Amino acid sequence: MADSDDKDNVVRKVPLPKADLQVNFTTWIAGKLIYRIHSAEFTATQFNPGKGNARFSPMDNGVSTLYGGVSTGVAVMETIFHDLPPDSAGAPYDLGKLEGLVHSAVKPSEDLHLVDLNPKTLRKMGVKRADILDSSADQYVFTREYTVAIHQAYPAAQGMQWSSKQHGDTALMLFGDRVRSEQLGVDIESERVLE
Fold first, then answer.
1. Over the stretch 100-140, which tens digit does the pLDDT of each residue have?
2. Which of 10, 116, 151, 156 is deepest in the core (most CB within 10 A)?
3. Phi-psi category of 171—alpha, beta or left, where left has phi over 0 and alpha has psi -120 to 50?
4. What positions does the domain RES occupy (predicted)?
């Protein structure tokens, strides 16, 4: 498989973002927990400055990000198991891949205004769920274009939320230039995933 950071070697399956991107917003209410699985090199409230290769980050414009979910299950499925094929039930998993990962829970001190990547919004954007939320890892270099386009078009957007590909419940990503670490209280601080 080609490196998903190299657009020249990957066949594009994701449409380009529209110039006049239309979206819907939702509110993540203050105090509602955000569960995270992340590298131990970051604290619970520390935004990732651009490491990794995820569906919506790193952003080409250099904005740091923080991923999470409505539950620990979502956080696990969106990070550890985000690229499992559909027929993977019962397949073995190398627990060594969990080394260096921690579990955290944070809660925002104020409401967060997020772009809601629900079916209605995706239709407005001119894409299907399969294009953005269910795409394979080789397409991440293209799905990240939507993150940058949303960030540029909507200065009030503090992040995005969507239905997890692997879990079904809500996952989210926050923009580090619009949400400060100080706005996130710590409920669980970086507990090791593997004991």
1. 889 999 999 999 999 999 999 999 999 999 999 988 889 99
2. 151
3. beta
4. 41-187
